[in-house]
Amino acid sequence: MAKARPKNSIQDEPSSPWRKAGERTREREIKREAVLRTAAQLFNEKGFHAVSLDEVAERLNVTKPTLYYYVKNKDEILAECVRSGLELMQEAIARSDEAGGTAIDKLIAAMRKYAEIVTMDFGKCLIRVGEDPLPPESRRAVRRLKAEIDREFRHLIELGIAEGSLRAVDPKLAAFTLAGALSWIGRWYRADGELGPDQIAEQCIGVLMGGLALPPKATVARAPRATAAKRVAKKAAK
């Protein structure tokens, strides 16, 4: 008959109820991301100054003191939301550049991703709330990131001009125009609107890259028809 194992043997000892350090770190990052994203959604809906940390906590089903384990204050939340939006844009442009292809291919890919990001929580927060409510040091950090994104766009435009796929325009002005137009999507985009992010991106990029005016040949081709119509009208008037 086998002997009963002592109650205090190693096999019977329970495992630690505390998670390993790595698991705790990952869990904290997930929860902090939830705090930032929820706050970004509220900022986008109501504006930065109209939102309180109590509202953020209520939407997350936690107490306000719990939030302070993940963020210091509302200013830090906004700084992180704006920074996240800018970093998403940086990463998108970098990936477009690394993907290869012609300069215009890279530029269009970057524009497409940029347009997509400004329809997302952090991207919309970057555009709708922006840097103005931030303290000076945070504003300077945000502006540095914006300047880096601007340089990337200019670089792609300069490459496109050099390879002959883009007209010889002022790269600085062109970069401001592209980024400004695409950023504005974040102002008026609605998730329940008629067009989805992909459709909006394609149409906006089409206008920016092709313009609104018809090519000169198409314009000239219509001219004879207009002249003929005038002749017909004159004869009818006699």
Automatic annotation (TrEMBL):
The keyword NADP does not apply. The keyword Disulfide bond does not apply. One of its GO terms (molecular function) is transcription cis-regulatory region binding. Coiled coil: none annotated. InterPro entries: DNA-bd_HTH_TetR-type_CS (IPR023772), Homeodomain-like_sf (IPR009057), HTH-type_TetR-like_transc_reg (IPR050109), HTH_TetR (IPR001647), KstR2_TetR_C (IPR041490), Tet_transcr_reg_TetR-rel_C_sf (IPR036271). It comes from the Bacteria. Residues 1-27 are annotated as: Disordered. It holds the Pfam family TetR_C_24. This is TetR family transcriptional regulator. It comes from Sulfuritalea hydrogenivorans sk43H.
